[in-house]
Amino acid sequence: MGIGNIGWTHKDRLMGIEDVGRTHNDRLMGIRDVGRTHNDRLMGIGDIGRTHNDRLMGIGVIGRTHKDRLMGIGDIGRTQNDRLMGIGDVGRTHNDRLMGIGDIGRTHNDRLMGIGDVGRTHNDRLMGIGDIGRSHNDRLMGKGDIGRIHNDRLMGIGDIGWTHKDRLMGIGDIGRTHKDRLMSIGDIGRTHKDRLMGIGDIGQTHNYRTKKT
Fold this sequence. Notes:
Layout: no helix or strand
């Protein structure tokens, strides 16, 4: 996944949301001013990256190297070994289900999304991203100043949080509560029940395959 000043990259029903792009790999998404990377229902959170033992990645101002399906994240792009991408101000090209990310959106091949100042339309399990929210038909989400309600594996994005029903997370200034494989993200940390972790100014507690940071 490419990560730059804008744009987001997701691999599976996920989307990055905030001023800085995020990268996600499985039903997760990083959310804060600094991009995060996740690989398997887990994510490190904090100003300084953490090291994790399995399908996890360090997160901080400077990218880290990881051993499996992970990516370094920071001001300078890194190279990784599998389904990974360098991250920096300029988008990169990647080999599979990946996308370059820069000031201007790119087109991608599958389960990817365009990234730029204006949202794009995508073909499958993707989302439009831009100043104006979009509506999508399949496992997609609209993104804009006003949150949306979605039906499945979707998430609302905007100034106001949303509640979602499955593998979703609300994103905004106000945290959300979710019921399954979700995480709330905002200024206040949340508690989650399964393979999730809260992200915010205040630490969170997690109960399954997650690391509290």
